[in-house]
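fold-stage: in
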Amino acid sequence: ALLQSILFTAAGTLIQDKVLYKMAASQFELGHLEAMESTVAQLRRVRPNSPLNDNALLLLATADSVSDKPDRGIARLSPLLDQSTDVGVVCQALWQRASLYEQNAQVEQAVQDYERFLTASDSPQRLIHARLRLMDLHYRLARFEQSEIYANQLLGQPNLDPESEQEAIYLRALALNKLERREPALEAIDTLIRKHPTTPYLHGAHYYRGLLLILFEKSDEAVKSLLVAARGESLDEPLRTNALRLAAMHLREKNDRPV
């Protein structure tokens, strides 16, 4: 009753907009998504020119992501991106639509939005994250040169946070390996292990280190890394199995050599 009284008293004002928007945001936080959508619809109906309507639309798109309805979120945001001239709104909409495209397995479209975000945003942390996503998505699209370019951009930044640095070094090593640039790939992996001995990429790094060392005919070192990889629960089971198989094969070869 109190809320309805406030809305009645403030009808047609920015106060009404703010009350309705905050109500919708609270309903989202509580997981009352249908009620939130009704509140946003009320805001847009009674105040079609409200400066908060764009923010309400962004809130709806966030709810679409939570509800695993990326198509609907993308459809909400696309007209907003075509029409809005507010840089802050555009950046947030690009960020959300890129994430929704990823959620919807539309990798190419996600790349386009993240790259557009790079030209629009001035948020240092968001720009780092956008480059991390682009590095990963280009790798998944088998564009290994582009993946390495974004990794190098990240690693060239001063004061890059440790988590982002580890991800960039690791994926740069994988891209270099795909490009058959084996020596710099091994150097990157060794740098990661040396600088970040507890990195979450440790077992993956040792797996690819073992493979590279086999190519360089350094079997003893390769076996050590492959055995570390085989013990790593964070590594996918097929890779752990392959690491153990390769290590066992090279140990048998070593034991079969004439003394």
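fold-stage: in (second)
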Amino acid sequence: AESKSRELTGEQERRLFEDEEIMTTPVETHIGSQKRIDNYLSLFELNRELHSIDDAEEFWDTALYSILGQIGARTVVIFAGMHDREGILYPVAHSGVIPADDWNLKGGDEIYDALAASDEIRYAGEFLKETTGIGDLERDMLEKTKASVLMPLRQGKELQGIVVIGPPLDRADYIIDDLEYLRLLGSSLIGPLERIKNIRKHKEETENLTRQNLMHRALADLTASLQTKKAVDEIYDLILDYFKKVLAVDSLSLVLLD
């Protein structure tokens, strides 16, 4: 009985030792898993919020706060195209650094062309090597922002924006879960961004159509009014009034030719 008792004690010790080993590894794994879960929950909430936003400025601010809050970046500058200046990316949202007036990224720039070619997140250090051909403005932007990683925002083969992200607040570098979050975030932003662009385009087209209809109606009214006038001065007054009120002309001269 005593021998059996010792055998049971040894078996219990062996199981206890194995249990300790089993419990050690999952704790580390659990930490990483919890980070991923937090990231997915954050993206879920962000997607729901983005689909309720119709304003571009609010959209970019929301994306900015998401990056700051989820990965704890010291600096972030989001470059994106403006509807009246397509093909060039300008700062549309920023934190931790104030962009200079001349900051922009465009085709032909080393950074722009590299990120336009792939959805891959790039380390800023790649572009600061002496062997790269970045221009002085690109180098200045990377250095002033203390850039750590660069995230492209691509719709198909078209580059919609670039996010320049500085170092993290609480550690030396970003972990894999952070980069995965940024990759998923980039994909999540494209759909709502296209919707906002389509809303803006539809609004502009509607406003242009309304303006054209008003001008055509005003021209028809002018034509009808001119047919009722016999004095040249009255005709001049109607024409001048049309140019000033309808066409918003500040000044003009009418010349009567015989």
